[in-house]
Backbone:
């Protein structure tokens, strides 16, 4: 869990959603959001709650997205796992691995797969990307954000 915690400080972010990233024909957007983390069950799981406002390039508000995330080490599976639920009715399970300064989660759905990468190479500016692959096609970028840690700590027991 110590290896995992460094990827989950409290953060604020700005970034972009690619044209078509929210579905065919959707416009490019900008996003601005924040995330807070804490530990539960004696440090076995990191819980993250996220909120993001999305805007058209002219500044027109489009939507507010919210996500609840729980991640940790699955002792039975021998891997990092995460569950996610959002305010648009999406939910899922992702399987993760740490590769140097990157934490990569992938969904296991056979037809539409997501890959989320948390890159903490720069401690002052983390980069998070979300990619999609449909029916075995190459990965395509959905969105990317530059995240600024709002505290010097990673996930703690504080709510």
Residues:
């Amino acid at each position: 869990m110590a290896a995992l915690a460094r990827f989950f400080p409290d953060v604020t972010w700005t970034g972009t959603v690619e044209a078509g990233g929210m579905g065919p024909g959707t416009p490019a957007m900008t996003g601005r959001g924040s995330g807070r983390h804490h530990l539960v069950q004696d440090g076995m799981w990191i819980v993250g709650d996220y909120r993001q406002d999305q805007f058209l390039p002219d500044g027109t508000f489009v939507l507010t997205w919210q996500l609840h995330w729980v991640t940790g080490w699955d002792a039975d599976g021998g891997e990092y796992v995460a569950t996610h639920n959002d305010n648009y009715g999406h939910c899922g399970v992702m399987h993760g691995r740490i590769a140097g300064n990157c934490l990569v989660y992938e969904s296991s759905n056979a037809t539409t797969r997501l890959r989320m990468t948390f890159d903490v190479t720069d401690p002052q500016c983390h980069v998070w990307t979300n990619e999609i692959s449909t029916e075995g096609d190459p990965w395509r970028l959905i969105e990317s954000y530059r995240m600024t840690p709002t505290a010097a700590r990673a996930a703690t027991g504080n709510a």
About this structure: The chain has one domain: 2-149. The longest strand covers residues 61-74.
